[in-house]
Amino acid sequence: MNGDNHTSTGFNIHKFIHQESFGGFLLIGVTIIAVVWANSSYYDVYNHIWHNVKMGFSFGDFELKGDLHHWVNDGLMAMFFFVIGLEIKREVMDGGLSSFQDAILPIAAAVGGMLVPALIYVAFNYNNPQNIEGWGIPMATDIAFALGLMSLLGNRVNVKLKMFLTALAIADDLGAILVIAFFYTESIDITEIIYAMIFLGVLFGGNKLGIRHTAFYAIVGLGGVWLSFIYSGVHATIAGVLVAMAIPAKPKISGRQYIDRLKKLLKGSKISTTENIAMLSSDEAHTLDEVIKITKEAESPSQKLEHILHPFSVFFILPIFALANAGVRIEGSLLELLFHPISLGIIAGLVLGKFLGISLLTHLIVKMKITSLPKGVDFRQIYGASLLAGIGFTMSIFISDLAFSDEQHVQTAKVGVFSASILSAVLGMMLLSYSSKQKK
Questions:
Q1: Hey, which of 21-35, 206-220, 324-338 has the most confident mean pLDDT?
Q2: Closest Cα to residue 10, out of 292, 214, 251?
Q3: What domains does the chain contain, in order, with CATH numbers?
Q4: What is the mean pLDDT of the chain?
């Protein structure tokens, strides 16, 4: 993995991990609230808020309305996937996935961590066609939960391991996006897809022409690409990723040009060094305006949007999603739900499948001398991270809603996701804690 804490675009991996870590704790709290709420005497209120409160708008014959649950899963989650798209683009261009040497290990680990869980789930449900649709559920990793728990170990966990898990989870997200697009789309309206591609072409054309105003990408992306996907049959969250790919990722001026222009500007400026000046002079105000201007030119629209939207995604979108989707009401025997083939397949897939898939592929890549482990990271730590990757939660719950039309199957799947995530978290933390003590 790249040893730099900051890429050339100024992205701060420590800040990213810190936000994800805190977001993970917030998710845990909101999830507990949702589960308690759904299993209390106020369940009817919970269900009414998310499934009976309608909102939207109409304009002539055009109408776009739905319940709050629909707006969260198709609206807010499209924004979440937009941020994921920006993260993927940044990692590919100038991050942990930017070179073959850096990318091959987390990508191979992610592939193993997706294929093995899916195969294990199929093994538990191969004789039941209705259950088999859930094969994509145990493929996902929740980066916020995983990094949140890993942060509890503080400096005992090498930052390179956190970077490995981050890159793995982002590659995993890309895989989940492809699975949703190709396997969890029931029917497709080709005309709407054509419209979406035309609007997407307009966005890429604007990028090529040097349009850098975020308003242009917001209007065309939301009013064109997203709306077309809403009516196309392909899940609207895919629109978020595609629009992110069209956002300009190169700054107007390079880092070197920025430094040179800043030095030249400050050298020729007449800034007073006297303290306690109440107001800036006109020359000082002009210099400050120029500094702000060239600073904006040194930051790409993609970087700017990720910087603004990532905290919004972590601290607002995901908690709202958890509140709307994690409220699983346990009716009947919990043991029956846990030992249902759907639940068992998910638990085995996330806990055992993630561990085996990531560990085996990592061993294979290193054994073949294609690349090596990140500096300061050993296989015991990789095993611990592999277990933490079994925390599926957000994406696994999201795919559960797409995979099954039967509400009972959805509830069973969510029980499996919760159980697997808790077990993976406990085992992963135990192993990482043990391995950190052994290294002392």
A1: 206-220
A2: 251
A3: 76-185+235-250+300-316+332-439 (1.20.1530.10), 257-269+280-297 (no CATH)
A4: 83
